[in-house]
């Protein structure tokens, strides 16, 4: 058997965007692979025969993704196939599933994020536009956006999008025959959600309109495509609108929250379109989407589907992602409770097709029969890899913490484990904090287990999947979650005495990076730390990042002017002088979610106090380095962490 190594990233197949044809006979999906040669990702569309379960490649260009059906035999997709493509335009191609070359179908001189055909050559779409128009290119002057930037609003940059000052996701109608656009949203509105009714006569969309500071709340609107009537369902500011989906032609489902605390779950609502009335459904204390954290997916897919009088969606449940359904009474029933994670799905009749991770398998397409509940694997892109490598299955357990709540844990034993022999360990912590880890394949963890480490992790208070009370750690960041982590650590050492407690490292990103920084200032029990895209100073986190001015201040329940002491008290930097743990910082210079100043501040503090520290600052990467960064950088990131732990734990 082969060891799982960093470079195996190039062997993985990532599946996403499963989409069933209108007649249910075929499905199209995207297969993505990391390319060592191109230092990027290769995308292909594949076609699945839903009855036979056979599949074959539909495109070969390496740039095709996001396939959707124009009719039962024609698939449209985006691709950047020109020799010198215009970065400000979007081009779609179409291809017949029975053969032939793809042909250029539609080009729009904007960066399009969503497009939905209405029929008769008309489309509704969202395009990224500068609300103030493109800056004028005057001769002999510096050009805005090239030589300098102007920031006059919050947020002025956004992770994964870069500088976003006055950029808005604009809602428009497009007529292919006349080449004319009709703008539907306000000049400064940022559209966040868009859905069409089954007949495509109605459109629901959500968003917020602002000039200076993006609000926490958003509005919900209903647009009649035939008459042009635009009706406000939820005025902006009343609540924050989340998921929206039509449950038939006369009913609109949506989720909404009136902010009470960080980590809260939304309420569910039904809007009766003919009567103009709203019904609040029973509180189910869960979100309407969510997958298990891993570094082995790329892309997602459909997250909702209404069929047979029921709305289907995914839901995090403890350390798993389940498929559930809800009728118009608000009653929710489990549909698929197989342990693992679902990243997207589609339904036709009684058949569900899902991109999912089951057991320790990498992501594949699975089929679920709604009538029988039988689930079976359809694709086998990663089967050969799984059969030929030392993939470790985590051992699962639960225990009761001192505060009375139950915690779950997973432990990967080192490959070649021999009872009675001492081994080093690595304690992994997820981001969020409202996220979850579970018993699925995680490349980083598998590499460490194959390198001779025990690897273990849990979902402490603050995590998703167990209701909003469990997720609510507002004003308690670094306190009750720290207690959970340390009690879990003690439980692991008790259950696995072959872990060398003198040689255990901690590792985590985002919120997990915050916890690494926090732990090294509050305990000396760990021999090394790898803190990634981290938070060290809540003053700079709140005032330098894309979500800091609203989300992070809400997490603390205050702001620096109202209660500076609380802001500083929850900042790991406060206790940095107490730290003695050698710490590696992994950071990206375009991470606007956790800006690099926090990693630099913590690094400087440790260096000034004589603690061995190192920063690996990745250029041109953002908060998603470990999940979708350039492949070479992803390998280098793993190498940096692995070398650091080899130095201090072995």
Question: Which terms would index this structure?
Answer:
eight-stranded mixed beta sheet, 37 strands, globular, about 650 residues, Rossmann fold, about 15% helix, 11 helices, alpha+beta, seven-stranded antiparallel beta sheet
Model description:
The chain is α+β, with helices and mostly antiparallel strands. The chain has a domain at 392-649: Rossmann fold. The chain has eleven helices and 37 strands. The strands form eight sheets. An eight-stranded mixed sheet has the order 30-31-33-32-34-35-36-37, with helices on both faces. A seven-stranded antiparallel sheet has the order 15-16-17-18-19-20-21, with no helix packed on it. Strands 1-2-3-4 form a four-stranded antiparallel sheet, with no helix packed on it. A hairpin with a 4-residue loop joins strand 13 and strand 14 (180-183). The protein is globular and about 70 Å long. The model has no long low-confidence stretch (mean pLDDT 96).
- How big is the Rg? 25 Å
Q: Got a strand count?
A: 37
CATH topology of the domain at 392-649: Rossmann fold
Tell the overall outline: globular
Strand line-up of the largest beta sheet = 30-31-33-32-34-35-36-37
Straight-line distance between termini: 24 Å
Give me the secondary-structure category: alpha+beta
| Overall CATH architecture of the domain at 392-649 | 3-Layer(aba) Sandwich
The helicity comes to 10-25%
**Strand residue content:** 35-45%
The major sheet is characterized as:
8 strands, mixed
Q: List unreliable stretches of 5+ residues.
A: none
**Count of separate DSSP helical elements:** 11
**What is the H level of CATH, i.e. the homologous superfamily of the domain at 392-649?**
Alpha/Beta hydrolase fold, catalytic domain
Query: What would CATH call the class of the domain at 392-649?
Result: Alpha Beta
Compute the average pLDDT: 96
């Amino acid at each position: 058997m082969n060891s799982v190594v960093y470079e195996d990233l190039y062997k993985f197949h990532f599946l996403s965007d499963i989409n069933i044809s209108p007649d249910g006979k075929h499905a199209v999906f995207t297969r993505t692979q990391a390319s060592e040669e191109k230092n990027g990702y290769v995308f292909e569309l594949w076609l699945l025969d839903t009855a036979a379960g056979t599949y074959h490649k539909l495109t070969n260009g390496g740039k095709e993704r996001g396939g959707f059906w124009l009719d039962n035999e024609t698939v449209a997709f985006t691709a950047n196939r020109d020799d010198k493509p215009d970065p400000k335009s979007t081009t779609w191609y179409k291809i017949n599933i029975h053969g032939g070359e793809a042909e250029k179908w539609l080009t729009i001189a904007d960066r399009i994020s969503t497009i939905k055909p209405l029929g008769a050559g008309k489309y509704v779409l969202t395009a990224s536009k500068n609300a103030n128009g493109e800056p004028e290119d005057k001769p002999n002057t510096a050009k805005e956006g090239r030589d300098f930037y102007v920031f006059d609003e919050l947020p002025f940059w956004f992770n994964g999008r870069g500088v976003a000052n006055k950029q808005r996701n604009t809602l428009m109608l497009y007529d292919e025959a006349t080449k004319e656009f009709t703008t539907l949203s306000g000049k400064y509105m940022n559209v966040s959600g868009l859905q069409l009714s089954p007949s495509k006569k109605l459109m629901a969309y959500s968003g917020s309109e602002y000039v200076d500071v993006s609000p926490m709340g958003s509005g919900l609107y209903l647009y009649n495509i035939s008459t042009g009537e635009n009706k406000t369902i939820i005025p902006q500011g009343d609540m924050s609108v989340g998921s929206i989906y039509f449950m038939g032609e006369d009913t609109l489902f949506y989720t909404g929250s009136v902010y009470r605390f960080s980590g809260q779950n939304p309420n569910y609502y039904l809007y009766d379109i003919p009567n103009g009335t709203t019904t609040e459904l029973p509180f189910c204390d869960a979100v309407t989407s969510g997958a298990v954290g891993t570094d082995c997916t790329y892309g997602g897919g459909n997250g909702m589907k209404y069929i047979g009088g029921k709305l289907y969606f995914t839901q995090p449940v403890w350390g798993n992602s389940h498929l559930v359904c809800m009728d118009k009474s608000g009653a929710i029933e489990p549909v698929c409770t197989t342990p693992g994670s679902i990243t997207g799905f589609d339904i036709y009749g009684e058949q569900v097709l899902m991109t999912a991770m089951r057991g320790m398998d990498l992501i594949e397409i699975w089929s679920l029969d709604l009538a029988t509940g039988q689930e079976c694997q359809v694709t086998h892109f990663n089967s050969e890899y799984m059969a030929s490598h030392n993939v470790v299955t985590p051992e699962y357990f639960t225990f009761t913490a001192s505060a009375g709540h139950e915690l779950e844990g997973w432990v990967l034993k080192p490959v070649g484990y021999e009872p009675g022999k001492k081994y080093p360990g690595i304690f992994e912590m997820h981001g969020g904090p409202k996220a979850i880890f579970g018993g699925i394949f995680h490349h980083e963890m598998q590499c460490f287990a194959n390198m001779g480490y025990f690897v273990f992790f849990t979902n402490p208070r603050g995590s998703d999947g167990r209701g909003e009370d469990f997720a609510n750690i507002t004003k308690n960041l670094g306190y009750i979650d720290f207690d959970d982590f340390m009690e879990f650590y003690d439980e692991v050492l008790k259950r696995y005495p072959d872990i060398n407690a003198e040689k255990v490292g901690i590792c985590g990103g985002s919120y997990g990076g915050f916890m690494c920084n926090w732990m090294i200032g509050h305990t000396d029990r760990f021999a090394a730390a790898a803190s990634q895209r981290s938070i060290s100073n809540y003053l700079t986190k709140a005032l330098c990042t894309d979500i800091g001015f609203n989300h992070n201040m809400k997490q603390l329940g205050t702001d620096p002017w109202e209660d500076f002491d609380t802001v500083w008290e929850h900042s790991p930097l406060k206790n940095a002088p107490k730290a003695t743990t050698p710490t590696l910082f992994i950071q990206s210079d375009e991470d606007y979610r956790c800006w690099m100043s926090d990693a630099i501040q913590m690094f400087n503090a440790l260096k000034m106090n004589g603690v061995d520290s190192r920063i690996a600052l990745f250029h041109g990467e953002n908060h998603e380095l470990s999940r979708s960064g350039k492949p070479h950088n992803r390998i280098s990131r793993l190498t940096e962490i692995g070398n650091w732990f080899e130095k201090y734990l072995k």
